[in-house]
Write a structure and sequence with these properties.
Strand content: 15-25%
Radius of gyration: 16 Å
Oligomer: single chain
Strand order of the largest sheet: 3-2-4-1-5-6-7
Order of helices and strands: EHEHEHEHEHEHEH
Largest sheet: 7 strands, parallel
Amino acid sequence: MKVIVLGGFLGSGKTSVLLQLAEFLVVRSIKKEHTTPVVIVENEIGGSGVDNLLLENQGLTVKNLFAGCACCTSSAQLEDTVSYLKTEFDPQWLIIEATGLAYPDKIKQTVEDAFGVETVIITIVDAKRWFRLIAAMEPFVSGQLENASSVLINKIDCVDQSCLDSVTASIRSYNPGIPCYTISAITKFTGDFWEQLLGNLLADLIRS
């Protein structure tokens, strides 16, 4: 089982990216008996969710983690959930979509400590709102980027190149050298894009 933690603030486009990533992983996966290509954990702060219905309507296996953040108040519940999914579905890929106020590196640490499986973090960034988020919630912004393996800078259709360059430079001030991919999640990503991103993620998994 390989684990991806998908981080990013509310409205950054996590679910749109998740749908495309999961679809690509399902198509790319090696067909094996008694295994599931992709299983998704949806972490919701409240007591109900909408995104999981969207994901399930696409034929994906989804488990909800409600009423708490997986990186802190619900970390024990996260361990129980991952343990159940590992036993019940034996997924090739487990994707954990964190809440917008989570620290993905804490989720990564929880999973690695409990199960000994390598985990990588993809953080989704809203290019249009980036500097407003820094001004309002800088500690959370830096926490979203800490120990991330890759950053997807989303909504590039809403900003010009100068703004995009400034956002990229700002991101790398928190995590120097991190791979940054510019995207617009309203469009269909190519297989080449996912192959490049996945190649970097697998390299991180091997190094860890």
